[in-house]
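Exercise 3.2. Students should predict the tertiary structure of the chain below and write it as structure tokens, then compare their answer with the key that follows.

Predict this chain's 3D structure.
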Amino acid sequence: MPTIESINPPAGMLVRFISDLHYGHERCEAPPPQELAKLLLTDGVGMLVVVGDLAETRKCAWQERGKTLRQDFREECSRRGVQLVEISGNHDPDVPPMLIRFWEGRVVAMHGHALYREVAPWSWEYLRNKKKCRALIASYQDRDDILEARLELSREMCQLTAPILRREGIKNKYLRGFLHCFWPPQRPWNIVWSWLTCASRAERFARRYFPEAETVILGHFHRFGNWKCRRRHILNTGAWFRHATPYYTDMIDGKVIAYRKVFS
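Answer key:
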């Protein structure tokens, strides 16, 4: 399964980047595929790039619905003549490319979970399976300088453990929600720290693995952001998820022409 691809859109083509729709998930707030297509495939968009987590396709309770909605959206894009490009995220590891170089590598799009060897060190999937996860990470340590190996590690980490749907045995939804967010105590701190350091971590990752990139587009962290780090432009397109905000990035010929909230 290939992990890296290169795409050079035709001159003048409008390319729109989004991420983290999470179709199928109980907390997904993206509209149905037909409505989403009407919302996004406008303004002369020729290519739509979903930077990971288009749908829930890991083995979980939402997998079947996620795959159905993803296929419906693929068909909507095809019907409207818009090229859909999907990048693998930690919730849809069945998508082949994990990183795509656009415009001769001046722009790189990746979901962002490869920034951490643990994929999401704040997640219950990791916190409940540390031993297995750390053993897998250790098996890759001799190849950490190779981008393809780092990406393969991320895909394997995503498939190692099943998503945690809820805290078993706790019937009160408010208590369940509180414990999910704030226990163990390091979990909320890790989440906040990941938000605060997202851009600098992405810049260091780019400097190490694809130093030619001028712009890096991410998802994964569910928090939108637009930063200049050293000489690089780092953009995060947020999420179509409860308590998050979706953004899109528009580019023509490798230059950002718009970075906007989808719902104004």
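Discussion points: The longest strand covers residues 45-51. The mean pLDDT is 92.
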